[in-house]
Every structure is written in structure tokens, then in C-alpha cells.
Design goal:
single chain, binds zinc ion, about 20% strand, four-stranded antiparallel sheet, globular, binds ligand ANZ
């Protein structure tokens, strides 16, 4: 009998599937559709375990859905523009395109090894002109819709990579997500997409996403950051003209407790209002604040700094004059860039007032009581209004509405909703990205490139000398064009687009990836979309997923799409973790291959080592190479292990012993099925049916299906496969038709998880057609019924006998059966039954 040698069978079947074109997405037919998608990779050239896990999860789902009778779209492509290609190219003296395409070749070959059922005919790369042609076309759509605009903006400037970063690309400690440099502030003319127009929809429609993890929805909601409040106006005292400071507040109910008004240092009024005496100090302060990161400026635990500028404002509600200050904790970009300071009820204002000896006036108390005079901390909860004129005694939430009404009536302000979300800064001063299809004409100004002239090709003849300005700014041949509108000599836009734009619509293109006349056929995109199951890392919870939702809504409003959410169901898979060794003293990682597992000490210093699971990464030297594991154990074992070791959304600890375990399990299945085949297979299945085995088979069908239909508990689905395999192994009845059914069912249920071995063994049984073209096994509910149970009969709590009874007998019936039991009758004879207690499925007890 042949040994289980995955390397002998796996490449063979992969080739056969490719020849049969098993995985191509069919054109529309009357089957329901299913679109399964993993977040497409950046082509770094290297395939890591995190990729393998993500793609295997989606693949198992796609294969299951095919067997269930869906027509399935399961594509893959490359998120191929971006800085790493440019930087790598600079370091190695190659061209970003060459580097990128070489990596794509490598990764494609690796992916093909894993046995993923992709429709390779739809493969796309965002850096290819036939893709970015349509990225540019989309830019024009946004332009037409008034959603693309230019503005001078203070931007996050990465001084190492010489580029602008989106807020999302700045870490919480104010460093660039990529280069790690401290991000600086710089004023530049930039392109934006007006995502703020969609803030309310993006927030509200989160409710439609019932099959998304709550965690992701919360992160998006926080990112959008809706605040409901008011704009209130504080006139400047003694100003020549009517100058007033407008603040944004979420707490108009605290307006009687305002001690000061505070402007962001960048606020344009600061210049006009600063008195001569304060001039020098204010200028110095503004320069200092400009150097701080936004995070530092707003952190609750950092000391706040500020100063009065020598002017006063009037609180229209109290008629009192209050000083005007500037402070670092007020941001120019948020709200109106000005705040009313209410130390008694705001944590930051409280700290600020204490530090600078500003008055603290309580206007809300927990219950109806006298206002405290010396607060220990700000009181930020709702409560009862005090010291607030006609609003005294009201609940503060009610007072909020009334105060806004008064402000509107008096012309002192109005209700306002504010979102934390800002417009999306999409321009990058980089080469390796999609050119923005715009021409700057001295006469006409900004002119979009006509759609017929697309794509604006990214010129290839560039020299990337080092990190710095984009080479596009020096390519005169390319830069100089005629204005499409008036024909005058004009210049091309040299900025390229943020790569998050490329990935905000790739899932649409897969529905019609080869279309060279249009971005996609409308029927096709509306047939396949939305994506039924999207699988990817939680690190994309905000940016990629929010931008994709935004694009979808814009294109819906342009009449291109008939749905408003792109991803029906989202699964964020956990990380793959590897055993990581660290020096217990210094915390430094020590690569596993330098360590003697019997003696956990740092070979360099002799210090003790700690061992623990951490997310696999190059820098931690704790990764496991998918290629090596495949070479050692085969694709099916790697797939089974990654699916079995943890539920998809949880972190997975890589454990060589468990990989072995899966390999052994597949070996057992191999021997089990081959043993059956050798003994004659289904042809010799002449024996009588086996009820218990049949129940085990159908329990497996039920459980595996439920695991796959529900929350994709792929790990427990595999446990069910193991149970069925054990039941078959334990069966004495190997000649029964039931046993034959069991063997076939096991292979069918295994096919989505371990597609190669399932196929090989399936053919071994004599089938001509691929196991992956078979229908998912049908559950026979009657097979699940346990027909008889053993009923224990007791008299006064003592066991007196037992008997076989129908499993579905009710309490009364059980008592009747028990009375008829021979042993019971002996003990009951001549006695009066006082009570009979039946425990269904177990026993009947007679009290006499
Ligand atoms: C007075 C007040 C009293 C406030 C009180 C809070 C509590 P969210 O919820 O995040 O929108 N604020 C407004 N604009 C600001 C800016 N540009 N920089 C820094 N802080 C700003 O926060 C809104 C609150 O943050 C506003 O409500 C304002 O302080 C402050 F007991 O106004 B509040
Ligand atoms: Zn012109």
C-alpha cells in the first residue's frame, strides 16, 4: 500500500484543476452568486504565514460555497503602487516597476503552491496602466461630482521620505508609520477628496453592517467622531469693527460657567487681537506650539500651556467680560479653532485654569444643592443647572436644547454638528503611484485630462537617485502639454495619488477585470457585488474599509452601483504568532536558531531567556516560512493546521507538534480510505445498514455545515472531521453500505479544507469527476434520531432493573413501560405506588 506522500499528489492535482479551469468564475446563470475575497497583498516578494492563513480561510469558504451550489467569484490581485517599491528600487538601483513585477512573479508562484482556488484570469495589479487608467477615470468622476479639490493645507511632512502623510499614517507618538521619522508640519497645496460630505452616511450605515465585527464598527464610528453641539459667538470688547470669536462647544449647557475664551495659536484673529504689550511673547509661543505634534497638544495627561493676549470678550449670556487666551490644547483644524473655557466642567479647562489661576465657576451639580466653591476636579456628568439665570433647576440635557434655542433667537449662535473626520488628503509627492489626471493651464487654471486621453501614463524613463522630490517634477518632456481646453502651453500635475485610492475600488474591477472599454460592465458589477465574504487584517479596520465604503457610496450616487455597502460580511483574522525568545535582562530578541532549547540562555551574554508567543515578524526572527513547511509536510497539512489551531478571528500560535498532529491525521485518513478501496470499495458494500455509524456520519454533515454557515468556526469543523474519521476507524461493519457512505462523506466534507488529498482519495474510489465538482452532502435528519435508549428502573431509589424503550417516549409512557418491567414488577407486587418520577432519557423511580 502506498504511503501518504503529499509531494507526489499535490502538484499533480493543482495542474489538473488548472487544466480543467475549475476555479474560473462562471458568467451569470441561475445559481445564486457568492463573492469571496481576501484583502489583496502588497507584492513585497515574500509570502508569510499571515498571508497563508488569510487566504486559506477565504479559500475554504469559497470551496464550500461551490459545493453548496453557488457560482463563486474568488479572485486575487496586487496592491502594487507605493513607497516600498520606490525605496527598495533606490537602495538596489533598479526601477520600481521592475522590482514590483519581479515580486509579483515570485509571490504568484508561491500562492499557486498553496492550492488556493483563485480565478487567475481576473488577476490585476494596481500599477498596470490598464488598471490605473480607471483609477484616473474615477478621479474625474470625483472631480465632476465636486468631491475632488485643491487647498493649501498644513500637512504632515515626513522629513525622511520627503512626502506628505495622511493623519492616519501618523502614529500616536507623532512618527511616520513607515519611516519612523518625527512628522513635521508644513503648508502645501494639496489634493483632497471630500469624504466629509459622506460622514453622516458612513456613520449611519454602520447599522446595516450586521455581519461585521462590532470592534471594527466602533473604530469607524470613533474615527468619524460625530459631536452634536452649537456654535456660540463672543463679541470682542472694544474692537473697532464687529469682531467676534465663534467657538464650537458640545456643552452649551455650561455657557454660564465660561471663565475665558481660548483660540488656537494658528487662529487668524490672534494677530489682530494681541495687544502690543503681549506681541513678542505671543509670537514666541506660537513658534513653540508649531513644533509640537497634534497628539501631544491634545493629550489629557500632558500639561497645557497658554497665555493671555491682552484682549477681552463678552459672554452674551452673562453680560460679563472674560479674557481671551491662546493655548496649545486648542486645535485650529477642529470645530472653529476656538473654545469657551469652562474649568468647572471640562477636564482640560480645569487643569488649565488651575495652572494659570483662572476663575472656576460651577453651573451644574449632581443633585439640586448649593454649588461647591472649591472643586477637586471637573464635574463632567449631566446634572441640575445652577448659577444659570432662568435655566436654574433644569436638567442639564434639557437646558442644552433651551440654551441653543435662546442663542438662535438672540443671534448669539446656532446648533451645529461637528465630525472629527476630515477630508482625505490624497496627493503624494512620489513617483510610484497613479498620476493625478490634471493639467495646470496659465489661462484656464486647473483642467482635468479628458477621459478619452486616459491613461496619463507614468513615464518609465526616470532615475530615482535618492529619497527626495519626485522625479516627475524634473521630467520636462512629460510635464509640458497643451491645455486640453484652450491649447496654451500648460503643465501636468506631478502629484500621484495615495495608494489607498487604488485599493478603494479593486474589488469592483474583479467583476470585469479585463474590460478595456469601461471601468466595468454595469450588469457584471451589480451582479457580483457586494462581496459576500471579505477576509483581512484588523489593521485595515479604519482606512481601507472606510475609504472603500466612501467610494461605493459616491459611485452609487453617480448611478454606477446599485448597492451602498461593498462588504456584506467581514472577518478580521487573527495574527499568526511564533515562539519568541528575549533576553530577560535587556528584553532584546534572540533568534531561535541560536538557542539551545535545553538551556534557555542568551548565547552572547549568558543571561536567562524568556519565551512567549508574539506576532511573527522579520525583526523578531520568530517567523516560520510557509515554503519550508510546505516542503516538509505538504499543502494540505499547512492548510489543516492553520484552520484547526484557532478560530479564524483569534490569534494563532504556531506549534510544530500540532503541525505534526495534522500531518498524522491526514495519514490516518489516507490509510483508512485506501484500506477500504483495497478491500473492494463500494462494490463489496453488501452488508446490512449500520444505524450508529449512519448517525455519526450525519452528525458530521450537520456540524460541519453549521460551523461553515455560522461564524465560520473552521477549527471546530475540522474536529468534526476527526470524529467521523474515528467513527469509521472504530467500525467493525466495514462491508456495509453505510461504511461506504461514511468514507465518501468524509472526503466530501474534507474537500474545502484539504483539497488535494480529498481529490486523490476520491479518484481512488473510482470517481472520474473532481471531488470539487460534487454537491455538498445532504443531511438526512432521520439519521440523527437515536431510536432506543436504556431506561433504568428504580424502586425507592434502588436500581432494580433496566430495559430498552423508544427514545422519544414521554414521561407518562416511560412510567407505563417501567411498570411492565419484569424486575420492577417483582418489587412492586402487593405494594401501593405513592409516586412515580420519570427522568426522560434516563430513569423511572417508583416510591412505594
Ligand atoms: C465648552 C465645554 C464645556 C466643552 C464642558 C466641553 C465640556 P468633541 O466631543 O471631541 O467634539 N473643543 C472644541 N473645539 C476645539 C478645538 N478646536 N480644539 C480643542 N478643543 C476643542 O469635543 C468638543 C469639545 O471640545 C467642545 O465642547 C470644546 O470644549 C472642545 F464642560 O466647549 B467644550
Ligand atoms: Zn487653458
Amino acid at each position: 500500500e502506498a504511503k501518504y506522500e503529499p509531494q507526489q499528489i499535490e502538484p499533480k492535482w493543482q495542474q489538473s484543476w488548472a487544466e480543467q479551469q475549475l476555479d474560473l468564475a462562471p458568467e451569470t446563470d441561475d445559481r445564486p452568486k457568492f463573492y469571496a475575497l481576501s484583502m489583496f497583498p502588497y507584492p513585497s516578494g515574500n509570502l508569510h504565514m499571515g498571508h497563508v492563513r488569510n487566504y486559506t480561510i477565504t479559500d475554504a469558504i469559497a470551496r464550500y460555497k461551490r459545493m453548496q451550489g453557488y457560482r463563486v467569484l474568488h479572485p486575487i490581485g496586487w496592491d502594487a503602487f507605493g513607497l516600498p517599491a520606490e525605496n527598495a528600487a533606490i537602495d538596489r538601483g533598479t526601477h520600481p516597476a521592475a522590482w514590483t513585477y519581479k515580486n509579483i512573479e515570485q509571490m504568484r508562484a508561491l500562492l499557486k503552491q498553496v492550492g488556493l482556488s483563485y480565478d487567475w484570469e481576473r488577476e490585476l495589479a494596481t500599477c498596470a496602466p490598464d488598471y490605473y487608467h480607471w483609477t484616473q477615470w474615477l478621479f474625474l468622476q470625483f472631480w465632476d461630482a465636486g468631491l475632488a479639490y485643491q487647498k493649501e493645507a498644513t500637512v504632515n511632512w515626513d522629513p525622511i521620505d520627503h512626502t506628505v502623510l495622511a493623519n492616519e499614517q501618523v502614529d500616536s507618538d507623532g512618527k511616520s508609520w513607515r519611516s519612523g521619522a518625527i512628522v513635521e508640519k508644513k503648508k502645501l497645496r494639496q489634493w483632497f477628496f471630500k469624504i466629509t460630505d459622506y460622514a453622516e452616511q458612513l456613520l449611519n450605515d454602520l447599522d446595516k453592517l450586521t455581519d461585521w465585527p462590532d470592534r471594527v464598527k466602533t473604530m469607524q464610528a470613533n474615527w468619524i467622531g460625530k459631536s452634536v453641539g452649537a456654535e456660540l459667538t463672543f463679541p470682542v470688547v472694544g474692537a473697532a469693527q464687529d469682531i467676534a470669536i465663534t467657538v464650537f462647544t458640545t456643552r452649551p449647557d455650561t455657557v454660564y460657567g465660561v471663565s475665558y475664551v481660548v483660540l488656537a495659536p494658528e487662529h487668524p484673529l490672534v494677530k489682530d487681537l494681541t495687544s502690543n504689550k503681549h506681541q513678542a511673547a505671543v509670537e514666541k509661543f506660537i513658534a513653540e506650539v508649531a513644533a509640537q505634534s497634534e497628539i501631544d497638544r491634545t493629550a489629557e495627561d500632558k500639561p497645557k500651556r497658554g497665555m493671555a493676549i491682552g484682549a477681552m470678550a463678552l459672554n452674551p449670556f452673562t453680560g460679563k467680560e472674560i479674557p481671551i487666551w491662546i493655548a496649545d490644547y486648542v486645535l485650529y483644524e477642529y470645530g472653529t479653532g476656538a473654545v469657551m473655557g469652562v474649568p468647572a466642567h471640562d477636564v482640560r479647562d480645569f487643569a488649565f485654569a488651575q495652572q494659570y489661576n483662572l476663575s472656576i465657576q460651577t453651573v451644574i451639580v449632581p443633585q439640586e444643592q448649593e454649588a461647591q466653591t472649591d472643586l477637586a476636579e471637573a464635574y463632567t456628568d449631566p446634572g441640575v443647572m445652577v448659577n444659570s439665570a432662568e435655566f436654574d433647576g433644569l436638567d442639564s440635557p434639557a437646558a442644552k436644547t433651551k440654551i441653543i434655542a435662546k442663542a438662535e433667537a438672540q443671534g448669539w449662535g446656532k446648533a451645529r454638528i461637528q465630525y472629527r473626520l476630515r477630508d482625505w488628503l490624497i496627493s503624494r509627492q512620489r513617483y510610484w503611484g497613479c498620476p493625478i489626471p490634471i493639467i495646470h493651464c496659465p489661462d484656464c487654471g486647473v483642467v482635468p485630462v479628458p477621459a478619452a486621453d486616459l491613461p496619463v501614463e507614468l513615464p518609465e524613463n526616470v532615475q530615482l537617485s535618492g529619497r527626495g522630490a519626485s522625479p516627475l517634477t524634473q521630467l520636462e518632456d512629460w510635464l509640458q502639454v497643451k491645455c486640453p481646453s484652450c491649447g496654451a502651453a500648460a503643465r501636468r500635475e506631478t502629484d500621484t495619488m495615495d495608494t489607498f485610492i487604488d485599493s478603494s475600488w479593486y474589488f469592483l474591477r474583479f467583476t470585469d477585470a479585463k474590460n478595456d472599454k469601461a471601468i466595468f460592465d454595469l450588469d457584471k458589477v451589480n451582479d457580483w457585488m457586494p462581496v459576500d465574504q471579505y477576509v483581512g487584517g484588523v489593521e485595515h479596520a479604519i482606512l481601507h474599509l472606510l475609504y472603500s465604503r466612501f467610494f461605493t457610496k459616491v459611485l452609487r450616487d453617480r448611478g454606477l452601483l446599485k448597492f451602498d455597502e461593498p462588504f456584506q460580511r467581514l472577518l478580521t483574522q487573527g495574527m499568526v504568532q511564533g515562539m519568541t525568545y528575549r533576553n530577560a535582562v535587556t528584553g532584546k530578541v534572540v533568534p531561535a536558531n541560536l538557542i539551545d532549547p535545553e538551556n534557555l540562555v542568551d548565547p552572547e551574554t549568558g543571561d536567562r531567556l524568556t519565551a512567549g508567543y508574539e506576532t511573527m515578524s522579520k525583526s523578531k526572527h520568530n517567523g516560520v516560512s510557509p515554503v519550508e513547511v510546505i516542503e516538509k509536510y505538504g499543502r494540505d497539512t499547512v492548510r489543516m493546521f492553520t484552520l484547526f489551531k484557532a478560530p479564524p478571528e483569534k490569534d494563532l500560535e504556531w506549534d510544530a507538534a500540532d503541525v505534526e498532529g495534522q500531518s498524522r491525521f491526514l495519514g490516518r485518513v489516507w490509510r483508512l480510505v485506501n484500506g477500504f478501496t483495497a478491500a473492494g470499495g463500494a462494490n463489496q458494500a453488501t452488508g446490512k445498514p449500520d444505524k450508529d455509524l449512519r448517525r455519526a456520519i450525519h452528525i458530521a454533515i450537520k456540524e460541519v455545515s453549521e460551523d461553515l454557515d455560522g461564524d465560520y468556526q473552521l477549527n471546530t469543523a475540522i474536529s468534526e472531521l476527526m470524529k467521523l474519521s474515528n467513527a469509521l476507524q472504530d467500525s467493525k461493519n466495514t462491508k456495509s453500505a453505510t461504511y461506504a457512505e461514511g468514507i465518501e462523506t468524509l472526503l466530501l466534507l474534507m474537500a474545502p479544507f484539504a483539497p488535494h488529498i480529498a481529490e486523490e482519495l476520491w479518484h481512488g474510489l473510482g470517481h472520474e469527476q473532481s471531488v470539487h465538482l460534487q454537491s455538498w452532502p445532504k443531511l438526512d435528519p432521520t439519521a440523527l434520531v437515536v431510536s432506543e435508549i436504556t431506561l433504568v428502573v428504580q424502586v425507592n431509589g434502588k436500581v432494580r432493573g433496566n430495559m430498552q424503550v423508544p427514545a422519544d417516549a414521554d414521561r407518562q409512557a416511560l412510567i407505563e413501560y417501567a411498570k411492565g418491567c419484569e424486575a420492577a414488577q417483582r418489587y412492586l407486587e402487593g405494594k401501593e405506588i405513592k409516586k412515580a418520577i420519570a427522568v426522560p432519557g434516563k430513569l423511572v423511580n417508583f416510591v412505594v
